Amino acid sequence: MTLRMGLSRTMVKLFFLGLGIFPLAAQSDAALEARIDAIMAKMELVDKVGEMTQLTIDMVSVGEPYRVAEPHRIDMEKLRRVLVEYRVGSILNVGGHAYTREHWHEVIRAIQDVATKEKPTGIPVLYGIDAIHGANYTMGATLFPQQIGLAATWNPGLAYEMGRITAYETRSCGIPWTFSPVLDNGRNPLWPRFWETFGEDVYLAAEMGEAITRGYQGNAISDPHRVAACLKHFMGYGIPLSGKDRTPAYIPDRLLREVVMPPFQRAMEAGAATVMICSGEINGIPVHADKRILTDILRGEMGFQGVAVSDWEDIRYLYTRHRVAADYKEAIKLSINAGVDMSMVPTDLEFPRLLRELVEEGQVPMARIDEAVRRILRLKLQLGLFENAYPPQGEDPLFASEGHATASRMAAAESITLLKNEKSLLPLAKTSRLLVTGPTANSLNYLNGGWTGTWQGDDSKYNTPGKQTVLDALRAAAGAEQITYVPGATISSLLDVKAAVAAAAGADVIVACLGEATYTEKPGDIDDLDLPLAQQELVKALAATGKPLVLVLAQGRPRIIREIEPLAGAIVMTYLPGNEGAAALSDILYGEVNPSGKLPFTYPRYSNDLVTYDHKAAESFSRDFSFNAFNPQYPFGFGLSYTRFGYESLNLSSDTLRADGVLLVSITVTNGGEADGMEVVQLYTTDEVASVSPSVRRLRAFEKVFIGAGDSAEVIFELRPSDLAFVGQDNRWVTEPGWFAISIGGEKARFYYKGK
After folding, report:
1. Fewer CB within 10 A of the terminal residue: the chain, N end or C end?
2. Which residues are the active-site residues?
3. What are phi and psi of 297, to 5 degrees?
């Protein structure tokens, strides 16, 4: 059995160094600042507030916002009003659905023609788009796994590649700015944007977030094949108390600093050019009106110097939803004074008019306006828009190329996680007769999820022709004659269960494809995590036939499968694997690829038992007074292989670590099976005693390694005191003297941190 291997974590670090890719300079050079001075000297207040305004493309299209006429066309009269009269500096979004690359070129050319030739300042427009798993609003583009699946690869090299390829294909449309990556913490699986995150762990999210940011931006965002990244949603959006989208979070300062901030900090240090502000509120204060977060922390503590843009209509929501402002004008004052540089308005022209009034009345200082405009102009200059604001002239031959599709397939293959495999049911023989059934078996939409062609990703008209569903891929791999298909159920209702049961009589193995419909944001709110009852009933009926049963879970969050898990011989988690996901799944099921994905979250057993792996010891205390209360369906970092990996010889370079020292940790990993494979070697530490109750364990390092059948590999990690730090009682980072335990693959060791 052979295995296709992606870039390892070590390889990608060397790759960055070889390209000279380092964080962008914190301070722009004098020449750049002089250009900004010269531009601003010619700007009036109307120009400045216009630069701080971002409108949806609906506002310059034929039709009305949310009801754009088809086929899509720019309304030149509206465009001139927006750009010439109101001097708007940024446009975003897509009018309802994906466009061809040729139409994107027409749109961007029309916008930049008016901006650079008719707008009094001649300042080009900054266009932004949600290209979050590829250029997903461009027809035919390469689509990757969604972020939660990318996290399951535990391979930052693949995150870098997704960023690089997405940047190439987005910039080839003439769009230089993507609203990605999501660096919110995926710690509440009810949250409908859970699948947009890198999972529940702060360290894994930081590693993946840094890599994808570098992939987007490269060494310079002026590169015609790179884009400006936008870290979102700063911050706390992913931990709503209720689990519902855009509902309040209650986050102690210690948790904010130790868990929420670090992924953003790492990506900022990697040079991230922009951030998008959280739509929610923390401890009763909407983030987009919180000067402490947006100025004191973001600018002062974290040192971020790029552009801060609001999310969709969030400034208006300060008075219509959050009710911390009496009207729109007061909401604008609160938000701009707090530190928002650009308002994603996105469907009115009141914002620039009211902001101008606020400045003229002295309620918003001119210095705050100039600060925001300087940041926006600096970004436009760094992107090279003043030199060339137009789409590329050439063909960009790598757009949707075979090489890009191969990279997506590799990412999908490394993400797919084998959760159960009793009696080595998998891999399947291609001579096996399969019954394929279930609601996600014959849908490309369910493999891609939201933000695919349309906002909710639910319109098959915008799927890429020729891309396979699971059914297509299995038929292509084994022959149509080996595969019988009966739908069995939709996502939420039963269809032809009797027909599925009857078809099982002629099958050697049943492959039941389960999961979720497409969704994102508010439409994805749910009231419990249970897999819809209809799908569970389908599985129970199929299991009663006595035929071996494989469950394939295509879902963006872990839906509860407690009652049907015992009925399956094998369970495979695909997450939302993208356009190449079905082919990758076929490779896994038929043994062409050895699965190597690991869960980037804790898979819960019960809907009301949502505890993360890095919980406190008190959360493990059980009703029987043992410490066995933590009992998920599958633990964080879990994933099986078609081979056996053994761990031995865990060695520390010393039993003591000093404040200025480094502890080398080595482990030998052996592939004791008959198949080559990749293993994610995970290093966890436990602080045995601390002044703030410690987590039972924390991920501190990992390495994905390829090991041939019968071979061994030594993996060496470096631990420094900063890797053991936590936020103490005074809300400052500290590493306290004391004993620490290390665990890797079941092997354990202890050392003592002495401090100074």
Report:
1. C
2. 311
3. -85, -55
